[in-house]
Hints:
four-stranded antiparallel beta sheet
Amino acid sequence: MAAKFVSRKVSKVRFQPGSFFDIGTFLSGSADEKTNSIDLWNISAKIDESFDFVNRSSLPVLGDVTELQWINNSLFCFSTSSGNIILASVDTDNSSIKEKNNWKGLHRIGSKSVPCTGFASLVNHLVTVGEDSRICVIQEDRHRPIREFISSDLCSISCIIAAGESTVLTGNSRGLMNIWDVRSTDGKAVETFMLMDQEEVNATCIGRHPTQGHVIIVGHRDGSLSVWDLRKLDTPEAVLAGDDTAVNELHFNENYPNHLVTCTEGGDLWHWDVSAAGGRHTGVSFQEHEVTPWLQVSTENFSVQELLPNIILGINSLSIAGSRVICGTDDEAIYIVDNIKF
């Protein structure tokens, strides 16, 4: 494990696509500063198994960074608590950041901007969500949204993920989940379901299985996870207990999707392994007709490992590359955990 103290809360971290072995590049975003920033980092492993962190470039940001995603190897996008979405790029040698486009005030209540809480990247569009219950569909050559939807319950939308080529899944603070088709003109969700029938469970984050796109895992504010099959939405396939604080992010290992990593408001970084539920270790060759272990998981056939003990403040964000996980925290540090057995 290695740590880099950056003197500001780290709200988001994302490895650049292709960062796997001795050297890598990642982005971080900050929060709770008068002026926040997106920072571009290079890391390299040293002989003594420690890491060098080099800050290559920084981009000032108005508001907290609320989401951060790479679109491809050179383009990335981030959202802010000021209701903005910014598209930016890194140059070919990963030495500088340049802003390319800025959609300001996408999310607002009356004339006041409210936080953009997240976005999903589709083939030709970005789809954003915010505290104004609004879903905005934008594309690079347009300055304003090409389409907007408003959630029927007028509740803050807390998370979003791509569910198909033209569909997104959103979750809100009341546990209402909606599937939206961005091509629709009637303004209505395609599918709607509740996380729990008998109680209100807030959705905080969503993960989609890398090879079985109908398999969705939702993180909850009470620290638990629910596993869903989008082909049958009457009940979750499983509910897995975590700690008692909000799940801030969850990510599958893209190469070994029986493995999931979560981080929480209480400072937990957990590695979940459901390989035992399916009887074999399944990698990227997993076929569509096979049943993923995530749809067979129960309280007895999965394991959880704590990856980063003794973190007191919240772990806000994580990213996986190879056997390595980075995470950003409220204790103003970026941590790297290496040689994880996925």
